[in-house]
Amino acid sequence: MLESCRPAAPRVKVYESGSSIASRYHGPVDLLRHLRFFDAVAEHRHFGHAAAALGMTQPPVSQGVQRLEQELGQRLFFRDARGVRLTEAGGALLPVARRLLRDAEQLMTLAHRWRPSGQVRLGLADDLEDKIPALLTRLAERDVDCVPTVSGTVELVEGVREDELDIAVVRHPAVVDGLAAGPVHTLATYLAWDDDRPRDAELPPMREVPPVVVPPRRHHPAAHDQLIDALRRLGHSGAVIEAGTLIERQAWASAGHGVRLVLDDESGRPIPDLPPLRVRVVTPLPPDRRADVDHETLIRRLEAALS
């Protein structure tokens, strides 16, 4: 008996009601990852070049595009000896894919930058060291609700420019083009040995003082170099130990490997002609400021806390 020549019914992929492309993946991140592959291959018209632009090898890109085609149920590219070309479906879906990628990037940006209304994103130069707790306490006493970020001046200035910070206290001099900068505050500095030597003990000559433990040069190259020059003029070797955090700097000094620059005359010893710490307040220009933050009042309170 002859078999029926009637064509077999097409295979239909059935999804539950309410399902989405994202839910059929292991998670939305996988979908976005494969959409980035789709976008890169469409831009470069070559899987190898797309992989290079993405900073990865070609096989994961090829496999990712194939999986995306399977999930969408559409062929996105023609692959032949002439290279890679978008199919009609690929050309229709590409603008939607790129819009999804833009929306995802905007979502992540907003999520990272979002803060409760009125909460201030405050940057503080790590050179302020032991003065930071007292500074934050004074602001809290004046009802300033802030989320502090302690970092190097270079990073803080960039944070204000990129709308990641509302205001920052940075070391002077710094390149603050395109920002509003307040007056320079000069804070006296002292040398602290962080050991048990009596306060009235005679200080050794500067040539015998061990290396000075300071924040990394990348935090503020100009001020770092100026400090070394000033130490050499005082007879010091100019040797420094760069440590990224306050606790690291305290540890180096406590272990007897160096001395610290501090802003407290009770824990440090005055050294004639020791360069002061100069800082200033920077904010975005008025048109770029958050509407829910009273920058003028904030600036006044921060300036008063530094005085």
Which tags fit this structure?
alpha/beta; transcription regulation; D-Maltodextrin-Binding Protein, domain 2; 12 strands; DNA-binding; 10 helices; 40% helix; single chain; DNA-binding transcription factor activity; Arc Repressor Mutant, subunit A; LysR family transcriptional regulator; WH-like_DNA-bd_sf; 307 residues; disordered N terminus; 3 domains; 4-stranded mixed β-sheet; 6-stranded mixed β-sheet
Summed up:
The chain has ten helices and twelve strands. By secondary structure, it is an alpha/beta fold.
Description:
With about 300 residues, this protein is α/β, with parallel strands linked by helices. The chain folds into 3 domains: about 20-110, Arc Repressor Mutant, subunit A (Orthogonal Bundle), CATH 1.10.10; about 120-185 and about 280-305, 3-Layer(aba) Sandwich (D-Maltodextrin-Binding Protein, domain 2), CATH 3.40.190; about 190-275. About 40% of the residues lie in helices and about 15% in strands. It is built from 10 helices and 12 strands. Strands 3, 4, 5, 6, 7 and 12 form a 6-stranded mixed β-sheet that branches. Strands 8-11-9-10 form a 4-stranded mixed β-sheet, with helices on one face. A two-stranded antiparallel sheet has the order 1-2. Strand 3, helix 6 and strand 4 form a beta-alpha-beta unit. The longest helix is centred in the N-terminal third of the chain and has 26 residues, at about 90-115.
Count of separate DSSP helical elements:
10
Report the portion of residues in β strands. Answer: 15-25%
Q: What low-confidence regions span 5 or more consecutive residues with pLDDT below 50?
A: 1-29
Please give the radius of gyration in angstroms: 30 Å
At the fold tier of CATH, the topology name of the largest domain is D-Maltodextrin-Binding Protein, domain 2
Q: What share of residues is helical?
A: 40-55%
Number of domains: 3
CATH domain class of the largest domain: Alpha Beta
Which geometry do the CA atoms define? elongated
